[in-house]
Protein: Phytoene synthase
Amino acid sequence: MTAHGISPADLAHCRDVIRTGSLSFHAASRLLPGRVRDPALALYAFCRVADDEVDEGRDKTAAVLRLRDRLDLAYAGRPLNAAEDRAFAAIIAAYDMPRALPDALLEGLAWDAQDRRYATLSDVRGYAARVAAAVGAMMCVLMQVRCADTIARACDLGVAMQLTNIARDVGEDAREGRLYLPTDWLADAGMTESAFLSDPRPGPVQCRMVRRLLTEADTLYRRSEAGIAGLPASARLGIWAARLIYDGIGRQVRRQGYDSITRRARTSRVQKLAWMGQAAGLTVATFVMPRPAVMYAAPLPEVAFLVDAAGRQTRTPARSVAVLDTLAALSRRESGHFDTGHFEGGPVLVRRSA
Structure:
């Protein structure tokens, strides 16, 4: 058994999951020290499998409710008999992982199951906080970093990465009936959600929306850099590499003229190696350069709850009211009983069984 309680066999399985399912993180993780890399691989494997089940499964609602049950079992010390679950339960025990962090991910995936739309950029950031920044906050816990300023910058990085993913996948998402662009952007352009989803095609309006997302991501990437110096010295290279590799995806979208509808931006192994080399130089600078004032900027309002949770020295035993309400709505959907509701990101029409 390893120092963090993950069995070698389970860890090997998690490594394989990431090697095939998340090439960018796998590349960056190779630069992390073993004491951080191994639990990080286990964390990402659990999150990857959970995301895939919701994203690719036929019954998204059931997938979210299964994830709820899996988290309950993991926090009870009785994980599902699967490598990812056993490894995640070991992380919970070894690092006193605040429950609010994986619950945030659960809530974001529940929003996906609800086919939620996001009216404003702030709403999109709220979604990104849950499905990406929560993972960044959990990474801080694995590194035993509880400084609020450092966690806030890690959350900036998570939101920036998710905005990059959204910008890259506009066409792919639309063809699957998913929409993460702010709906007020569509309205301002005289477009309806249904029209966009029924016939996604590149054009000046769509390209401007992708550009706006990447501009927002750029701002957050720059803010995130200040926090890397607050991480353990041995972990900085891997995080710098992750920051540059994900930003590289956005740069590829730009080179394609912001057309992420007919083309999906991809980066090569050679490019990743180049960004890793650049990361080495930037890592050296963290030891000699003073920390910029943005290090102490207030967290994004959408991630403040994550910063608070990750900064605690003990994990909370119960789910938040917001998460419980979201899960209750999904449970009603699963049983076929629904009312018309309104959610933070905009109205959602739900049915009541006869």
About this structure: Residues 8-348 form a domain with the Farnesyl Diphosphate Synthase fold (CATH 1.10.600.10).
